[in-house]
Structures are given as structure tokens and as C-alpha cells.
Prior knowledge:
Number of helices: 11
Distance between the termini: 14 Å
Protein name: NAD-dependent protein deacylase
Bound molecules: ligand BV8, zinc ion
Shape: globular
Radius of gyration: 20 Å
Amino acid sequence: MNNDTLQGFREAFANAKHIIVIAGAGLSAASGIPTFRDGGGMWRSLDATSLATPEAFHENPSLVWQFYHYRRQKALQAETNTAHKILAKLAIPHYLKKVAPAAKSMHLITQNVDRLSVRALDDLEKELEEQGLKGPSYRARTGSVVQMHGKLFEVQCTKCDWRAEDFSTPLCPALGHVEANIQDYTDAGSKNHDIPISLLPHCPECQELARPGVVWFGEKPYHLDQINSLVFKADMCLVIGTSSTVHPAAGYAFRVRRRHGHVAIFNLYPSEKDENASSLFRGACEDILPQVFP
Length: 294
Ligand code: BV8
Ligand code: ZN
């Protein structure tokens, strides 16, 4: 790692007041969650836009539910990795103050729906409590982790406003009979195990078809007002493990940079928005972050 980059970043971080992290699938790659667009991305063969849209669900709810069943399985089997844990520490005021004494706020805005960042923070807070470290310095501020693309473990109704968190798997017996490895769907439509709609998850309130609690393409991401004010205030923006191809998240770093904030990009490969970087860290975030935040 280039020492000047590291030095420059550390100085900027030490003076940062409002810190945001924009996270993408690369943050969870080391936890075994396939990313979407690089390497053997699970969406390379499955073509994201042919599955993660309301239209795809309307046309073939059986296939889309199988895709999300696979994603839920992967996320349930996953463990949080070093990168998740380091970001969780930055959300705890006691730790943040050590590396950013001037910091007034820190928010992790994640595009991921795997809940691993939430789990890492929950685990850390529990650990601190067990050590008898209580009080506001040892707890993240409410709303520190913003899951803008929804939650894989939420199920919601397609008709009424019912929604609930559900970690059970399979969500319904029919999904349990689907072969685990959906990754070999070369043509998303061909290997369909046509599960009759009646056997897919349904709303317990109105008995209509239920859907995964995630934001599909063309749908409005969650917490946009909160995120826009965080982006406006931010003077430090870490961009970690994202190809910066999905909007509106892809535009946040540029907005911070345009207002003379510091943008640090952490990515294994070059990304479309590397030119926004004040500091560019090339490598796996689970390897780089422990060096940057020892
Ligand atoms: C909306 C949930 C409007 C579902 C997802 C402007 C311009 C162009 C297009 C648009 C635009 N505005 C809106 C659009 C349309 C669309 C869009 O952006 N399309 C793109 C593809 C062209 N956006 C939308 O539809 C959004 N909605 O804007 O609504 C609106 C506003 C108001 C009112 C009504 C409507 C909604 C988008 C949300 C879609 N849902 N996820 C699910 O997960 O199943 S997006 C999906 O992609 C995931 O959330 C994922 O996180 C996200 C982004 O991908 P990445 O996270 O970046 O992952 P990727 O694989 O691409 O990259 C991984 C990166 O990690 C790589 O760079 C790799 O190098 C790196 N990496 C790998 N390993 C590591 C690593 N880095 C470090 N360490 C490692 N170990
Ligand atoms: Zn309902």
C-alpha cells in the first residue's frame, strides 16, 4: 500500500466531522456472498435485470423466489468478515474518536441486503456489554447502518402493507425442494422449477402472494431523505466494494467530492467512478481495512 496515500487519508480522516461509508457487494465477498458483476458474479449468468424487477416477479414469481431462497441460504451460512467488523467498530463512538477525534457522526449506507453489517455491529455491542462497557460511548447511534436496498430477511405482501422479518429457511416447503445451486442457471428462464403460486410464500393477513423485502430496479430505495442529508453534510466518504454502477448510490461519492469532501475508494478492481477518489486503495477490503484502521 502506498504510504503517501495512507498518510494523506489518515490525516483527512483525523479531521473528518461527518463520515459516511457507501458499501457494496465487495464488502461481503470474503463472507462467501457472490458479488453481482465481477468474477463469477451470481448475476453474471442470472442477469440482474431479468430477476430483480417487479416485472420479473409478476411474470415468474416461482423463479424469482427461488433466486431469493438461494440468496437467503447463502447469507444465513455466511459469517461476518474482518471488513464488516472494522466498519462496525467505526460506528462505536469510543473507537471512532481514536481515529477521528473531530467526528460528529458516522453512517454506513449499505447497498447490501445480506444484513452482515447489522450483524457485525450487534455482535460488537454484545461483546462490549459482556465486558461491562456500557453507555453511549459503546453503542452505535440509532440509524448508523442504513440498508437502502432493503432486507433479504424481510418478507412483504404484494398487496397490503404487511411486512415481517423472517429468518426461517425454506420460507415454504416448496422452496425447500429446489436444488441449492441456482448458480448454474445459464438462462434464467430455462431451469425453472415451476412452483405453483399457491405454494409460494403468502401474506398471513390478506393471503395474497408475498415477495422479498428488497428494493428492485425501478423501485424507490429506502431512507433517501436521510441519505441525501447525510451525503450533503459528509466531509469524508469511504466507498467500499462497489462497482458504483447502481444509482442513486453510484452518485453519492461525486456529490461529496464536489463539495470538497474527501473520497476514499477501497476496491479490488478499478471501478467506473475511481476518478472521484481523493485516496484510492486497491485490494481486498478485508485485507486493506485492517492496515488502514489497525
Ligand atoms: C431508483 C436489491 C428511482 C435487490 C439492488 C441513473 C442513471 C442510470 C440508471 C439509473 C439512474 N437512476 C436510476 C436508475 C435505474 C437503476 C440503476 O441504477 N440501474 C443501473 C444498473 C444502470 N436504479 C434503480 O432502479 C434504483 N431505483 O433509482 O428509483 C426512484 C426514485 C424515487 C421514486 C421512485 C423511483 C434501485 C436500485 C436498487 C436495485 N436493487 N439490490 C437484490 O439485492 O436482490 S441493486 C444490487 O446492485 C445490490 O444491492 C448491489 O449492492 C448493487 C450494486 O452492486 P455492487 O454492490 O456494486 O456489486 P457489484 O457486484 O456490482 O460490484 C462489486 C464490487 O466489489 C466490484 O467493484 C468489485 O471489484 C468489488 N470487490 C469484489 N470483491 C471485493 C471487492 N472490493 C473490495 N474487496 C473485495 N474483497
Ligand atoms: Zn397482505
